[in-house]
Amino acid sequence: MKTVVRANIEDLDKIVNIDSEVIGNKSRRDCIENAIELGHCIIAKEEDDIVGFLIYDTNFFECSFISLIIVSPSKRRKGYASLLMDYMIRTSPTTKVFSSTNRSNISMQKVFNKNGFIQSGIVENLDEGDPEIIYFKSK
Fold first, then answer.
1. Is the pLDDT of residue 135 over 90?
2. Which of 61, 71, 75, 135 would be 52's cystine partner, CB 3.0–4.6 Å?
C-alpha cells in the first residue's frame, strides 16, 4: 500500500540513504535533517519502506517551493513523485507552489506536466549550459 506522510526525525537515516543512492554521497544530510525538524519533509512509503521524499520551503517570494523530490531508482515510474507532489499541493501552507528542474531533465518535466504544473520562467547560469525551468501550480 502506498502512503504519504510528513517525515519525522526517526526517518532521517532511511531518507539520507535514498538520497545517497541517487547522488552518490550523504552531503545533504544536514539539509534533510533541518527540513524534517521544520516539518518541510514529506515521505512516500510502500508498506513500511520509505521509497521517496520531497523537501520544500516557503522562502521563494513567500510561496512554497519544492526544492527536492527524490525517489529510489528501483521505485521510479510507479507514481511516487506524483503522490508526493499531490500531497504537497493539498497541504501547502501557501496557495502558490513553485519548483524547478534543469532543461535536460525531461523525466522531471513530464512529472510536472502530468501533475498540472505550468512553466513560469527560466533561470540561466545555475548549471552551465543547462538552464533551470521554473514551474508553478496554484492550490
1. yes
2. 71
Phi, psi of 72 (to 5 degrees): -50, 135
DSSP, collapsed to helix, strand or coil, labels residue 29 as helix
State which amino acid sits at residue 85.
M
Amino acid at 7: A
Which residue ranges form the domains of the chain, and what is each CATH number? 2-138 (3.40.630.30)
User: DSSP secondary-structure letter at 40?
Assistant: -
DSSP 97-110: EEEEEETT-HHHHH
pTM greater than the 0.70 cutoff: yes
- pLDDT over threshold 90, residue 139: no
Amino acid identity at 40: H
pLDDT tens digits, 78-116: 999 999 999 999 999 999 999 999 999 999 999 999 999
